[in-house]
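Supplementary Note 3. Input sequence used for the single-chain structure prediction.
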Amino acid sequence: MDSSSNGGEVLEEAIRLYIGLNETKWNHHPIVTGGYCCVSPVYGKTERTKKKNNVFVPAHNAVIQDSGAFCDGPGQRLSFQEALQRQKDHAAQYDYANKIEYRASYDLLIDEKWEGGVRYKKRWTVDDAERAVKETIDAARYISKEDRLSHVLSAQGVDSSQYLECVLEVVPLMKDRDALGLGGWCITGLNKRKMLPEFLDTVKTVIPRVAESVTRIHIWGVMLAEALGPLLWMCDQYDIKLSTDSSGPSWRPAFGEWGYAEWRDKGYERPPVETRGLHRIWHVAETRLWLNNFRSTQWYKEP
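The predicted structure, written as discrete structure tokens, is reproduced below.
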């Protein structure tokens, strides 16, 4: 388990942060992730911009290799075999195959829709998501059988009942070092009033049911403090380790943003390009420290 220091005090790693990477440098400066990163073999928001992720993974990093499902819209979905091969090819091409700690299953996301070749955030209905749940379960089954690495086996679902249905099919497929992936919640910060109650209900429903079989949970793409705090609290009750991933900590200073939740600095201004990469490195370090010490924040509480 990692630790960081703060005024001489050693802080336990509460939530591990995997920095999302899709660059080879940060504004002309070397990439410094803090030891953990998440790499997708493809990225892009539209059919036109979707492309291979040209990436540099620093030495001594542990990698979660995403599946690329986040970027594959209607008509772009691969077979499970093709998706796995894309992951293997990308890791070989960019020389991080020996750094992969977890490889993700090729789930079908239920918090996005496509229209005219453009992806946008919108939650599916329960009925529509039945197809996604089935495909997500099948994806977990395939990669757990066909790939020798440890995996993040992802789950999907619109409400707590549907989510539990998916999880109860996925968990028996997990091997000793596998993690359960909580997918479909990165939209929560865009509509907290509607989505946060459903998320908290799902957390309270799912975590106790998987506690005997799951030792690590990875929540995909969530940096919302109001969600992470209760999730961490629930994981702590059952001695489950928690991690998340985001590229946000690395790019926010480049857009004139600094911090999250209680330490967000609204007066921060984008630095000049000469030092922008350094600010990105510092912001990643500060974000990791915040998550390391998350149990001492106001957000850590029972859902």
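The chain has one domain: 7-296. The domain at 7-296 is CATH 3.20.20.105 (TIM Barrel).
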